[in-house]
Amino acid sequence: MSRTNRYDVTEWPVGDPFDDIGEVINSIIADIRARQTATDENDGGKPGAVISLPPGDYRLRTQVRIDLSFLRIEGSGHGFTSSSIRFNVPEDEWAQLHELWPGGSRVLVDLPAGADERAGAAFLVEREGSPRISSVEFSGFCIDGLHFAADGSGRHPENSYLNGRTGIHVASANDSFRITGMGFVYLEHALTIHNADALSIHDNFIAECGNCIELRGWGQASKVTDNLIGAGFRGHSIYAENHGGLLVTANNVFPRGASSVRFEGVTRSSLTNNRLHSFYPGMVVLAASSEVLVGSNHFLRDHEPWEPFVGTDNGLDDTFGLLRVSGNDNSVIGNHFSEVLDPASIRPAGATPVIIRVAEGEGNYIASNHVVAREVRSATGGSAFEAQVEALLSTEEARRIPVTAVLVDTASTGNTVLDSGTEAQVRIDPTVNAFRATPGIP
User: Fold this and answer.
1) What does the alpha-carbon distance between residue 170 and residue 179 come to, in Å, rounded to a whole number?
2) In whole angstroms, how far apart are CA 179 and each of 10, 188, 225, 409?
3) Among candidates 439, 370, 441, 363, which has minimal Cα distance to 405?
4) What digits encode the pLDDT tens for the residues 89-99?
């Protein structure tokens, strides 16, 4: 019986952590709950505990259910490596690979596909009543969904991004949660958190998941910072709804997600200093969102270069906009947009791609944005790493292509567009909006 409030899953007497770490952690949580019963003892009483996962592979056959505050589950390395690359290497070459699976302190999610995200979660955090559950931390280990499932499309099953498995699902209102230094791979939903207050999602590697970060319900004063993120073509890399005071900054968002960032009903929040890369339009969407600052981000839109995913997209036309705004009083300031397209692939054929589109709303302020649009002839490759790097570095001499830098729809009035495109690059009704063009070069 531990008395130090620090537990090692490999030393706990109940269960076998290598066969079912879920059973072991649930037993440890039950012990913490049984020992820490006093709510006010010497100005304390329930300090919580740390559960340690030494480096190793831990299969999870039983969902971990967390219903107490001040719990930290920590490992010794996020262990991320690309499962997608491995599964797309011919099996007869696997013997030559240095490793086949993610490593570090690794939880292998071996649950049946859930009827919903909650049921399929490896870690379910849920507690009602007052106060809200607080200060639960996940740090320094890998949650691996193992395999994706066939979707009926004829695509390789391991490329579907579907398996009904979730890494961490927080179902209850919560305060001061921290997810740091984690690895998430091959999960349909990596991290889903409802009703968050002062949440920190920092310095994680979340990729090759159907959806990466989903902030649902409502929330305030949270941050998503310094993460490496990349969702699949079906889902969102960063999604937030009904949040205020949200800070999304210094993230490196990889391509292939249906959106890099999507805000629904988000207000008085910041999306700043991120590097965003996408293969499709609709990279960033502000839907019914107001007083959001979008500043000093780098947007890159180019083509899918890796053969297993050529031909997939998110269903949007190039007139949708790389950044689409629906809402009031948002600021889009000082962003750099790189659009690198094969003219033959533009949809609909013959259309002029749109970079910033104000679909509806008033009082939006768009200023000092720089758009670079160049032509490239699409090429593909069998190596994900080499194909992507070559695509990133091979556009120096490409000729420029015409784009609409800013489109303000007729449903939008009272907006201001300054120095974000020449007269020819901006489509706006200057009788109901303010407009100053970027000077042209003689």
Assistant:
1) 12
2) 23, 18, 11, 40
3) 370
4) 888 999 999 99
Question: In this structure, how many other beta carbons lie within 10 angstroms of the beta carbon of residue 5?
Answer: 14
Summarize pLDDT for 196-243 with one digit per residue, the tens. Answer: 999 999 999 999 999 999 999 999 999 999 999 999 999 999 999 999
* Residue 316 in tokens: 């949007």
130 belongs to a structural domain:
no
Position 272 in a domain? yes
Q: What number of other Cβ atoms are within 10 A of residue 352's Cβ?
A: 15
The CATH number that applies at residue 307 is: 2.160.20.10
Q: Residue 303: name the closest of 372, 387, 370, 369 by CA.
A: 387
Could you tell me the two tokens for 6? 């620090």
Per-residue pLDDT band at 185 (split at 50, 70, 90)? very high
Measured distance CA(127)–CA(132) in Å, rounded: 7
CA angle 270, 276, 280 (to 5 degrees): 120
pTM above 0.90, yes or no: yes
Q: Would the CA dihedral through 65, 71, 77, 81 be positive or negative?
A: positive
Task: Count other Cβ atoms within 10 Å, centred on residue 238.
Answer: 29
Name the one residue in this structure whose structure tokens are 């259910």.
65
Please count the structural domains in the chain: 1
104 φ/ψ sector (left φ>0, alpha ψ -120 to 50, else beta): left
The H or E element that residue 170 is part of is strand 166-170
Instruction: Give the per-residue pLDDT at 387.
Output: 54
Question: Going by C-beta distance under 8 Å and a sequence separation of 6 or more, which residues neighbour residue 30?
Answer: none
In a domain, 71, yes or no: no
**C-beta neighbour count of 294 within 10 angstroms:** 27
Phi and psi dihedrals of 433, rounded to 5?
-135, 160
Question: How many Å apart are CA 254 and CA 294, to the nearest integer?
Answer: 18
- Range of 309's domain? 255-442
Q: Nearest CA to 239 among 266, 204, 221? A: 266
> Which residue is listed with tokens 């106060």?
131
Check residues 310 and 259 and name the one with the higher pLDDT: 259
Count CB neighbours of 89 within 10 A.
Answer: 16
Q: How far apart are CA 225 and CA 220, in angstroms?
A: 15
On the question of pLDDT at 356 being above 80, the answer is: yes
422 domain residue, yes or no? yes
Structure tokens at 86: 């491995």
Question: Is the model's pLDDT at 19 over the cut of 90?
Answer: yes
